[in-house]
Amino acid sequence: MQWETVIGLEIHVQLATKTKIFSGASTAFGAAPNTQACAVDLGLPGILPVVNEEAINMAVKFGLGIDAEINKVNVFERKNYFYPDLPKGYQTTQLEKPIVGAGHVDITLTDGSTKRIRIHHAHLEEDAGKSLHEDFHGMSGIDLNRAGTPLIEIVTEPDIRNAEEAVAFAKKLHSIVTTLGICDGEMSQGSMRFDVNVSVRPKGQKELGTRTETKNLNSFKFMEAAIFKEVERQIELIEDGGTVIQETRLYNGDTGEARSMRSKEEANDYRYFPCPDLLPVIIDDSRLEKLKAEMPEMPDAKKARFITDFGLSDYDAEILSADQATAHYFEATVSVSDDAKLSANWIMGELSKSLNQNGISITESPVSTNMLGGLIKRIKDNTISGKIAKEVFEVLWQGECSTADEVIEKKGLKQVTDTGAIEAMIDEVLASNAQQVENYRAAPEDKRGKMIGFFVGQCMKASKGKANPGMVNQILKQKLDG
Questions:
Q1: Strand partners, 150
Q2: What single-letter DSSP state applies at residue 130?
Q3: What is the strand order of the sheet 3-14 is part of?
Q4: What are the residues whose beta carbons fall under 8 Å from the beta carbon of 237, sequence distance 6 or more?
Q5: pTM (two decimals)
Q6: Angle 72-78-80 from CA coordinates, rounded to 5°
Q7: Is 350 helix (H, G, I), strand (E, B) or coil?
Q8: What is the Cα–Cα distance from 132 to 166, expressed in whole angstroms?
């Protein structure tokens, strides 16, 4: 039997406010446990919450960024459940009247096709604290620093059909919220967490299968692996005569293990009711117009501009516009190098490789845009070859010099472009390889293209990589074919 996978996502996005959604406590990451939880976050008797205006503004910007309806009247409710890291015994959230209504996000897949993923809604809520299960000798510790941190929870329609689409959507969403500046996007710190709802059904069936929810996935890699594992589990279970149970599951990215956590709750289990301490939040037209005027260029618009203004391919523009920091780095590099294509190649190639190997983001790159732009200029004016440029880049990365020119001068890497010197070197190579010369000249025309590579390699070796490759090719061909 052929099976179809149906996936919907719930994404918790921590908003980049300086203070919490209902209190003045700091949201800074990395503080000592329980040093950033005030009386409001602890739910002490007599406290009253006050809505953080900036959290409202950020939620509205997200709605504008996905072409969603903005609900002008939205209400906070209490979602009641007991858990040790939720000291109030309820979470203040939104249910009936969320701030962001229906919208959409368009994704591009690896085959170049596009797909629209519908957003059902996004609502504001407060984060819970964090349970710590290590180093407590069989007990759990509670850190309430995160309690009250403002979130938007984004809920998709069940439009996703496989792990590739899920990851493409997650990456696009990450691009949107970081471009808007409403989230720092640091997934390792919990700034974005994905809950994945997965079900399977026989291909062609309209009725949805029973779904499970795998919670708190904080990397694209883990989300992809968790989806593959859950789809495989459900299909195998059904084909063996079993039944999928609606439940909440966990996935451990380090071990690759998945397990059941608890049976899945329904909305009525939480006994939602309007929060008596908070009035409805009204979004008026003047606020909407002000926030629209503050909107940055969104990833799709930036991609289109990169194609039009810089002549980039669709693929290159997609990669370079997806992340706000990368887009800024690219444009700043181009302003120095005056070569968009070479800048794109170096950012997606050598720079990206070095960043990944060292586990750092582009904002932490030791090679600045001025450094990389200056390096590319020296490739363009034939001061250095592409091969030598990689040596220069490595020196810049290690912080030994501050400019490409300094590296080239200090290490004597300037490219040899003197025709006489290159001719003399080529003559020596040809004289030392008489048999290969004879073989080349005896070969048919269509075979010579590959054979000339041997001589180019010998010349570059003789020059220690400093000879201009274009000139070497040209002079070699003249001498071999003449």
A1: 126
A2: E
A3: 103-108, 114-126, 150-156, 3-14, 192-202, 212-217, 247-252, 257-263
A4: 243, 244
A5: 0.82
A6: 150
A7: helix
A8: 29
- DSSP letter for 458, please: H
Could you tell me which of 165, 175, 133, 198 has the C-alpha nearest to residue 13? Answer: 175
Confidence band for 288, pLDDT divided at 50, 70 and 90: very high
Whether the CB-CB separation of 297 and 85 falls below 8 Å is answered with no
Does an H or E element contain 344, and which?
helix 340-346
**CATH architecture of residue range(s) 419-481:** Orthogonal Bundle (1.10)
3-state DSSP assignment of residue 247: strand
Query: Residues of CATH 1.10.10.410 domain(s) within the chain?
Result: 419-481
Token pair in block for residue 291: 């926030």
CA atoms within 13 A on the CB side of 60: 24
Residue 171 has pLDDT above 90, yes or no: yes
Instruction: Write out the two tokens for 33.
Output: 């446990």
What tens digit of pLDDT does each residue of 340-381 get? Answer: 999 999 999 999 999 999 989 899 999 999 999 999 999 998
In whole angstroms, what is the distance from residue 177 CA to residue 393 CA? 32
What distance in Å separates the CA atoms of residue 475 and residue 472, rounded to the nearest whole number? Answer: 5
**pLDDT tens, 419-457?**
777 778 888 888 888 888 878 887 887 777 778 888 888
Do 159 and 118 touch, CB atoms closer than 8 A? yes
| Alpha carbons 333 and 376: distance in angstroms, whole number | 9
